[in-house]
Design a protein that fits this description.
The chain is of the alpha/beta class. Helices cover 36% and strands 23% of the residues. The protein folds into 2 domains: 3-104 and 186-251, HAD superfamily/HAD-like (Rossmann fold, 3-Layer(aba) Sandwich); 108-183, Alpha-Beta Complex (Hypothetical Protein Ta0175, Chain: A, domain 2), CATH 3.90.1070.10. It contains 8 helices and 12 strands. It binds magnesium ion (MG). Magnesium ion (MG) is lined by residues 26, 28-30, 209-210.
Length: 253
């Protein structure tokens, strides 16, 4: 049996046993394919309809967990249902039942202070652009001439933070053509754990495709949940590996 079939079967068994299921979805690369222009990564209609059906079903709880800001997530998904939980900015912001709150407020001003200098540093390594995000420094690399630029840029950024004595306050995240700088204490894993504590007695499943999802995949395992990767190259062993095109089969269970 293929992994996707096994996973669907497992969900069905849980439902038959009247267990409630909490589904955590990363956004880019999980619910939407990775786009060249991140501004246009809209939630596909069929995925959205499926999510709304799940949200309305009392057996499920749904959270979107993304590096994107809440505002961007709202704009791209147009999911207005108040029951859906949005975790934005890598676990910094939370939107639930129409209320926004923050998981941590430390070290945000530090990010703002370093932004202009950090941008200069980034531009000197690779062509690209800064995404407007209030709580992180997010640089999208768009440079086809050189290779290994994510590695190179993160090394240079690390040095930059060290020189400015900020390496204990800020950390670097590497993604697909993205290098981000954000407060040390912010992670998807921290945010997901806080949500899990608010919703005990669920079976948790996390779907992720990138390095930034690893902390959350680990937390879900700690709470006896299921970890699912949509990226065969992810450097973390999950319970299941599925192809991104199969995400809609999960949403339509
Ligand atoms: Mg992703």
């Amino acid at each position: 049996m293929k992994q996707i079939e096994k996973l669907i079967k497992l969900i069905e068994i849980n439902l038959k046993e009247k267990k409630k299921i909490f589904l955590f979805f990363d956004y880019d690369g999980v619910l939407v394919p990775i786009q060249n222009n991140p501004d246009r990564a809209y939630l596909p209609r069929t995925t959205k309809d499926g999510l709304i059906r799940l949200i309305k079903n009392k057996s499920f709880k749904v959270a979107l967990v993304s590096g994107r800001t809440l505002n961007t997530l709202k704009r791209l998904t147009k999911l207005n249902n108040k029951e859906v939980i949005f975790i934005g900015s890598h676990g910094f912001e939370l939107l639930y039942k129409g209320k926004t709150s923050f998981f941590s407020k430390q070290n945000i001003s530090t990010i703002n202070k370093i932004r202009p200098k950090a941008l200069k540093v980034a531009k000197s390594v690779a062509k690209g652009f800064l995404e407007y995000k209030p709580y992180t420094f997010t640089y999208h690399i768009r440079d086809t001439k050189k290779s290994n630029l994510v590695e190179k840029l993160s090394k240079v950024m690390k040095k930059f933070l060290k020189e400015n004595k900020l390496h204990n306050k800020l950390k670097i995240l590497k993604g697909k053509n993205i290098v981000e700088v954000l407060p040390q204490e912010v992670s998807k894993g921290h945010a997901v754990e806080k949500i899990i504590k608010q919703f005990p007695n669920y079976s948790y499943i996390y779907f992720g495709d990138d390095v930034t999802d690893i902390s959350a995949l680990k937390i879900v395992k700690r709470y006896k949940g299921i970890s699912v990767s949509l990226n065969p190259y992810l450097k973390y062993k999950t319970d299941f590996l599925i192809h991104p095109k199969n995400i809609n089969r999960i949403i339509r269970v």
